[in-house]
Amino acid sequence: MRRPRVANTRPIAMGYRFHDCSTRRRCLSCRLCLSRRLQPARTHEGDHRLRISETSHGGFRKGSVLSVVVCRSTVAGAARRLNLMLFALVIGVGSPVRAMEPRPPKAVKTEITEELRLAVSRGLDWLARQQAADGSYGGLSHYGPHVGITGLAGLAFISDGNTPNRGSYGQVVDHALGFILAHRSESGLLAAETSHGPMYGHGFATLFLAEVYGMTHRVETREALRRAVRLIVNTQNHEGGWRYQPVRRDADLSVTVCEVMALRAARNVGVYVDKAVINNAIEYIRASQNPDGGFRYMLDSGGSAFARSAAGVAALQYAGVYGGEEVERGLQYIKRFTPPKEESVGHYFYGHYYAAQAMYLGGDAYWSAWWPEVRDELLKKQSPEGFWRGQAGQEYGTAVALIILQIPNRLLPIFQK
Fold first, then answer.
1. 145, 210, 257, 259, 370 from 251: Cα distances, Å
2. Is 388 exposed, middle or buried (CB count within 10 Å of its CB: 0-12, 13-18, 19+)?
3. pLDDT for the residue numbered 344
4. Which of 49, 71, 86 lies at the terminal end of a domain, its last residue?
5. Do 218 and 344 belong to one domain?
6. Taking CA 260 as the corner, what is the angle to CA 257 and CA 262, rounded to the nearest 5 degrees?
7. What is the percent of the chain where pLDDT is above 70?
8. Does residue 75 register a pLDDT over 90?
9. Stretch 151-174: mean pLDDT, rounded?
10. Quick one: which of 275, 95, 22, 97 has its CA closest to 86?
11. What is the mean pLDDT of residues 132-154?
């Protein structure tokens, strides 16, 4: 059957999925919704429907509804030829192309409460007011202006549906992007002068660049992203992991998960990453797991702990390992720290940042039990001014809390399988 043509569109990045296209602000990177000839129509989660607004468009009559879902598996050959970018596939009126992988939990009304909406609104407003004139975040911490904290802050605003210069906080996102681009080097390293152990910040900043590039397709952003990814690939050590400095000497789990997440986001938007790099990272992460299901800091040292165990499970999932014994044992270990009955934990925000993602990608059973508890606990921890106080400062704590609390929005592409 010959596919109908959809004119005046641009490719959608691999792995993007949209749950509500009732407004252009929520469409993020979907270029179809921005076409003058196509108008978005509200749909159920998982579908992306476009209504023909002119009488002549691809052979369809005015008012026809096309359902489109970005799917990695059905167009693998075309993806390779198009540098891993996918064009929207339309196979018939009202018939969506569906992804083969299991889906994350579906949205339910009880996930987002009025208290949550107000808390997020206060948090975003507070965070926007803290941005420095150069677009940076981190000035309230002992790190100073920091590409990693800036990247996380940018992701918090993207999670609300903002993109560079689009949305209520569009200028904030654009200024954050400008700061990160201003601190890229010829080697690809993303780091401000104040950075110590720059690969942490580099991983978060690369993740932010990938998410932004998937929405804007700016040439400058792509080039910075490509070089940042090349640096990550070239600094993977013989064990399969990464460490604080951009050298191959050693590795630890906490830095490794930052780089794996960045690589996954980059692959999602069409940047080439050799599969061997991902496979080596998977082997390193698996080797870091302890018999109790938790993960140790380095291969030759450390017992299990909440934060790095949550990071370990999330790293496996972002590397494409969504099931299996190691993931199941890891999720069961994380469950021991379900708020408010959690044991004493260090690196609270870092741990819950990854735990929420691991539980979300783990499916309905895990997410439905975890989400209400972590949501309510985070709401209690918010200050009257709207911020959260994290180990790396208020901007960091607020950015991470907002990312977690906005997972039910299902707008950040990296959180999709």
1. 25, 23, 11, 11, 30
2. buried
3. 59
4. 86
5. yes
6. 110
7. 72
8. no
9. 97
10. 97
11. 92
By CB atoms closer than 10 A (0-12, 13-18, 19+), residue 38 is: buried
If asked whether residues 212 and 294 sit together in one domain, one would say: yes
Query: At a CB cut-off of 8 Å and minimum separation 6, what does 388 contact?
Result: 123, 349, 378, 381, 382, 394, 397, 398, 400, 401
**pLDDT category, 29, cuts 50, 70, 90?**
very low
In a domain, 99, yes or no: no
Do 130 and 64 belong together in one domain?
A: no
Give the count of domains, the chain: 2
Q: Are residues 27 and 130 located together in one domain of the fold?
A: no
> What is the SS3 assignment for 102-120?
CCCCCCCHHHCCHHHHHHH
The identity of residue 207, as a single letter, is: L
Q: Is the pLDDT of residue 391 over 90?
A: no
Q: Which domain holds residue 53?
A: 12-86
Does 127 fall in a domain?
yes
In a domain, 97, yes or no: no
Q: Are residues 239 and 388 in the same domain?
A: yes
User: Which pLDDT score is estimated for 347?
Assistant: 87
CA distance 359 to 369: 9
CATH at residue 394: 1.50.10.20
139 and 41 housed in the same domain: no
The interaxial angle of helices 170-182 and 199-216, nearest 10 deg, is 130
**Domain final residue pick, 48, 71, 86:** 86
Q: Which of 241, 272, 276, 239 is nearest to 259 (CA)?
A: 241
- Side chain identity at residue 133, one-letter code: A
Q: What is the pLDDT of residues 238-285, one digit of tens each?
A: 999 999 999 998 999 999 999 999 999 999 999 999 999 999 999 999
Q: What pTM did the predictor assign?
A: 0.76
**Gap between the Cα atoms of 19 and 22, Å rounded:** 9
Domain presence at residue 39: yes
Pair 286, 392 in one domain: yes
Q: How far apart are CA 128 and CA 157, in angstroms?
A: 9
Write out the two tokens for 64. 């026809």
Residue 128: enclosing H or E segment and its boundaries? helix 114-130
Q: Look at residue 308 and tell me whether its pLDDT is greater than 50.
A: yes
User: Rounded distance, CA 411 to CA 96, Å?
Assistant: 19
